[in-house]
Each structure stands twice: as structure tokens, then as C-alpha cells.
Specification:
Belongs to the sirtuin family. Class I subfamily. Keywords: Metal-binding, NAD, Repressor, Transferase, Zinc. One of its GO terms (cellular component) is nucleus. It comes from Wickerhamomyces mucosus. This protein has 327 residues and is α/β, with parallel strands linked by helices. The chain has 2 domains: 160 residues, TPP-binding domain (Rossmann fold); 154 residues, SIR2/SIRT2 'Small Domain'. It is 36% helix and 13% strand. The chain has 12 helices and 9 strands. A 6-stranded parallel sheet has the order 3-2-1-7-8-9, sandwiched between helices. Strands 5-4-6 form a 3-stranded antiparallel sheet. Strand 8, helix 11 and strand 9 form a beta-alpha-beta unit. Helix 5 packs parallel to helix 12. It is elongated. The two termini are 16 Å apart. The structure holds ligand BJW.
Length: 327
């Protein structure tokens, strides 16, 4: 820790102690030290695959087998992972402040809960990998903590980190034709979900996101995918929130309630690129009402600007900074 960081740490800890109400907005970077990939940037899950192909309702309609392989691999990785010191530090803070603290996590890996985060002080904005929901219009089946693996024998191979590239079949970098025809197919029909997802591809995801590397691991027919145990007909889907889908209403109501009834003094912004809405709106809302912000991230573009405003930026691994800063 540098001298400047020591000074930051001291002013932050003083402010933390005085803060009446605290909000934490958490992203994939918190679980990076547990070995789980983030979404965007180098090493992110979307470096080779477009969110259009994996994280929209249309992607699931078009190729549920591909989407299930992605989520089956994510479920397996998350089950294998262990909460890190960052999850534990945040969980401890939540237990010290059962009614004056709220974590809004965008993560679907369940690691904060496994670190014993106080149950009433965490909201999973984007759902959970371990919730299964029936996709049939006529069925309301939903199961909350399913940790079976594989869910069907056809998904037994989804244990490595997704995506797996099949080397021999990869087109040459200058072979645009295959790439373009794949994109054309995926772009039809264009609707709001795809438009939303494309907005991310162009604005926030590195340029190779719709890359020619796109390859399904294997083609799995629908009959071999997980089906609803209740209606027996509908396909099951992971209970995560895809682009273009509404966040769970209960969760949004609870978040709104906390923001409306608590005057928030401090927002901890942990391991998130800050690109996805409405999650980011909660930070802005708290800031507009006077909350200060402390960012914990390996990349902070506006570090100097933050400090000038009297906010804090702790540059580096959140699993290292949080135990020190929140002690
Ligand atoms: C470290 C680290 C270490 C690395 N330590 N740090 C307003 C304006 C513009 C657009 C919209 C808007 N409102 C809605 C939209 C559209 C869209 C959206 O946000 N688009 C923008 C991106 C352009 N939003 C939606 O579609 C949402 N739905 C919606 O608004 O519905 C409206 C509606 C109402 C009524 C009816 C119908 C609709 C839904 C958004 C759902 C997002 N879902 C995903 C996938 C979940 C499933 C899955 O897991 O596969 O959630 S997208 C993906 O991004 C995932 C994440 O939770 C989310 C955020 O990513 P996160 O966590 O920030 O990760 P990264 O990878 O981006 O960043 C990691 C960070 O960690 C980096 O900064 C690193 O530097 C850092 N890091 N290692 C600390 N060790």
C-alpha cells in the first residue's frame, strides 16, 4: 500500500464508521479472485461470444442447446468456486449492520450467500444460476436452489470454462464470409432484445465480441435438455435475467424501498464495469441524494476525478482491498 493509498484508506474508514446507511453494488469482479470469469474485457466470458448469442430470450429460442451449454458450464464453475475474502468481508459488514446496509449484487453465482451474507440485506438483481424456471406460458414452475450437475446426460460435458474453441474448424482471420452468414442468421428477426444486446456489443464490449470464433460446442436437440418436472412439457431455463427482460419485480421493489426509506451516505461500487441498467441507476440515485462513492476495481478510468470530488478509488483486486477497507 502506497502512502497515498494509506491516506485514502484512513479517510474512507472514518467515513464508513460515520455512515448511517450504506449501499453496495457488486459485479463480476468480486468473484474474479474465486476463479470465475467476468463478462467484458480481456479474459471475459464474452471475448469470443456475443451476448446476442447467449444472454437474450431470442438466443434461447433460437438455440436452447447452445445457451444451456453456456449456463451448465457456468453452474459447474460456480459450484466448484469458493467465496473469497472479499465476499467474506462484505458479508461481515452485512451482519454488523442488519438494517442499515444493502447489497445489490448483479452476480448470479451465489458466492455472497455462501459467504454468509445476511440474508435480508442482499438482493440478486440478475437472478441466480441455480434457479430453474419453466418456459411454458401455462406453467409457473420455479425451483430456487438446484445444484445438480449435469442436469441431463447431454449436458455432462459442460464442465470446462465456456467457450471451447474447436481449433481445426476456426475460420482464418480474413475469412469473413462464414462470419457474415452466421451474423445474418442471428440477426433475424431483429427485435428489441437484440437491439439492446447490440447496443452493448458496440458500446461496451471489446470489438471481437461477435468474432468469427463463434462455435457451438455441440448441437443438442431440445428433447435432451432439462424439462419441467411439473408440466412435463416446457423446457426449463436458468433463472437469470437476460437482456431485454425485466428484473424480478420483488427485487426491484425491495431495492426501491431501501433507497426511498434510507438516506444513503455511502455507495460501495465493487468489481463492476458499470455498463448495465437498471443496476447502475441505483448508484446514480444515491449519488444524486448526496451519497459518496468508493470504487473497488482493477481498472478505474476516472480515479483522479473521483478523488477530487472527495470520493474514493481502491485500484486492485477487490478480494484484497475489501478485508482491509471494511475491517
Ligand atoms: C475486478 C477484478 C478484481 C476484474 N477485483 N475488480 C438504460 C440505458 C441504456 C440501456 C438500457 C437502459 N435500461 C435498460 C437497458 C438495456 C439493457 C442494458 O443495460 N444495456 C446497456 C448495457 C447498453 N438492460 C437490460 O436489458 C435489463 N433489463 C431491462 O432493463 O428491462 C426493462 C424491461 C422492463 C419491463 C419489461 C421488459 C424489460 C436487464 C439486464 C440484464 C443483464 N444480464 C447479464 C446476464 C445475466 C445472466 C448471466 O450471468 O449470464 O448480467 S449481462 C451481464 O452484465 C451480467 C452482469 O450481471 C452484468 C454486469 O456486468 P459486471 O458484473 O459489471 O461485469 P463486467 O465483466 O462488465 O465487469 C467486471 C468488472 O470487474 C470490470 O470493471 C473489471 O475491471 C473488474 N474486475 N477483476 C475488482 N479482481
Amino acid at each position: 500500500i502506497t502512502e497515498e493509498e494509506m491516506i485514502q484508506l484512513e479517510t474512507f474508514q472514518n467515513y464508513l464508521l460515520q455512515s448511517r446507511n450504506i449501499l453496495a453494488v457488486v459485479g463480476a469482479g468480486l468473484s474474479a479472485a474465486s476463479g470465475l470469469s467476468t463478462f467484458r474485457g480481456t479474459g471475459g466470458l464474452w471475448r469470443n461470444y456475443s451476448p446476442i448469442d447467449l444472454a437474450t430470450p431470442d438466443a434461447f429460442d433460437m438455440d436452447p442447446g447452445l445457451v444451456w451449454q453456456f449456463y451448465s458450464s457456468r453452474r459447474y464453475q460456480a459450484m466448484k468456486a469458493k467465496p473469497n475474502k472479499g465476499h467474506f468481508a462484505l458479508a461481515e459488514l452485512s451482519r454488523r449492520r442488519p438494517s442499515t446496509f444493502l447489497t445489490l449484487t448483479q452476480n448470479v453465482d451465489g458466492l455472497s450467500s455462501r459467504a454468509k451474507h445476511e440474508k435480508n440485506t442482499i438482493l440478486e438483481l440478475h437472478g441466480s444460476l441455480f434457479t430453474l424456471k419453466c418456459t411454458s406460458f401455462f406453467c409457473n414452475y420455479s425451483h430456487e436452489d438446484n445444484r445438480e450437475h449435469p442436469l441431463t446426460p447431454a449436458l455432462a460435458n459442460c464442465e470446462d470454462e465456456f467457450p471451447q474453441k474447436r481449433k481445426q474448424e476456426q475460420p482464418e482471420p480474413d475469412d469473413q464470409s462464414q462470419h457474415q452468414s452466421k451474423r445474418r442468421k442471428l440477426n433475424e428477426p431483429i427485435n428489441k432484445d437484440l437491439e439492446d444486446a447490440k447496443a452493448i456489443s458496440s458500446s461496451n464490449v471489446s470489438s471481437n465480441v461477435s468474432s468469427p470464433d463463434f462455435k457451438p460446442v455441440q448441437t443438442i436437440p431440445e428433447r435432451d435438455l432439462p424439462h419441467c418436472p411439473e408440466c412435463k412439457e416446457g423446457l426449463l431455463r436458468p433463472g437469470v435475467v437476460w437482456f431485454g427482460e425485466s428484473l424480478p419485480l420483488k427485487v426491484m421493489d425491495a431495492a426501491d424501498d431501501f433507497l426511498m426509506t434510507h438516506r444513503i451516505d455511502l455507495v460501495l461500487v465493487i468489481g463492476t464495469s458499470g455498463t448495465v441498467w437498471p443496476a447502475m441507476g441505483y448508484i446514480e440515485r444515491a449519488q444524486r441524494k448526496g451519497a459518496k462513492v468508493a470504487v473497488f476495481n482493477t481498472e478505474i478510468d476516472n480515479l483522479e476525478k473521483l478523488k477530487k470530488k472527495g470520493d474514493w478509488g481502491f485500484l486492485g483486486d477487490a478480494s484484497k482491498w475489501l478485508p482491509v477497507a471494511l475491517e
